[in-house]
Specification:
The chain has helices spanning about 10-30, 40-50, 55-60, 65-80, 100-120, 125-145, and strands at about 50-55, 80-85, 95-100. The chain is mainly alpha-helical and about 150 residues long. The chain has a three-stranded antiparallel beta sheet.
Length: about 150
């Protein structure tokens, strides 16, 4: 472990927390021999929770560019976990729907996702968690209002 402290540098703290939590997810998915990555699980979970989404909506929710989302969707489609339905004639607009196989995989993986969440919030009270989420939401909005994302 690195002994260097970032003090009250919020950007470094948010970034490092994201890196470590993504590493924990990747490590756990590899150990459990899951057939999809944490990024792919995120997309699959979003589609299961929402019933159907457009690719554009998935990109906006995940803050990933459309090319990255298209790649993830292609992989999930090849694994028969989701399917694309053309939403408008003559245009490349697709609704993304979960398949039975996709729902079953998501449901099987959900306990591990919950376990990962519990690891991340261990020792944090509900009140602290609520304050943290509210604060991060405000930081996100402050930054989002000043940046142009190419999604």
């Amino acid at each position: 472990m690195c002994a260097i402290k970032f003090g009250r540098r919020i950007s470094a703290s948010i970034y490092n927390t994201g890196v470590v939590s993504r590493a924990l997810s990747s490590q756990t998915f590899t150990e459990k021999k899951f057939k999809i990555t944490p990024e792919q699980f995120l997309v699959l979970d979003l589609v299961v929770e929402n019933g159907e989404l457009y690719q554009r909506q998935i990109a906006e929710i995940t803050l990933k560019d459309r090319g990255n989302i298209a790649r993830i969707i292609k992989i999930l489609e090849e694994k028969e976990l989701i399917k694309k339905l053309e939403a408008s004639q003559g245009r490349r607009v697709y609704k993304i729907l979960v398949t039975k196989k996709g729902k079953e995989l998501r449901d099987a993986m959900l306990p591990i996702a919950i376990e990962l969440r519990n690891i991340l919030i261990h020792g944090i009270s509900e009140e602290e968690l609520e304050i943290t989420l509210n604060t991060l939401g405000k930081i996100y909005e402050n930054a989002r209002n000043k940046v142009t994302l190419q999604i």
